[in-house]
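Explain this protein:
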Amino acid sequence: MKINKGISLIVLVITIVVMLILAGVVVLSLSNNNPIGQSKEAQFKNNIDAYNSELSIAVSNQYIKNRAFDKETFNLPLWNGISDGEGTIKEFVPSITKEDGPKFKIEKGKLVYVGSNEVEQNWFTDMNINN
């Protein structure tokens, strides 16, 4: 009497197909719910919120110092990360980072995104901030 040891070729093929299907589902799930992308988006939006808060405090302080202050003429260029930022957005938004400095400027008392990253531009727009 002959005893077969091992698994059959059909069982092996079925197992491989099931494994491939499961791997495909996991890959699709991770690509749709990209945790790294979501964390970058959350970080960016949190920074924008902080920058806007600091800017509104700076604008309020300008009104307190000078009653004739006109928000429409309050324009500041971006900060390139060099020196103390005097005369740039860094002066009124102290927490802005060297990475974000070249991406933002102030126009008419509002924070404006001037960077070239389309994804960040969309995130900025998602926050209902007018450009």
The mean pLDDT is 86. Residues 35-65 form the longest helix (31 residues). The CA atoms of residues 40 and 120 lie 10 Å apart. Strands lie at 104-107, 110-113.
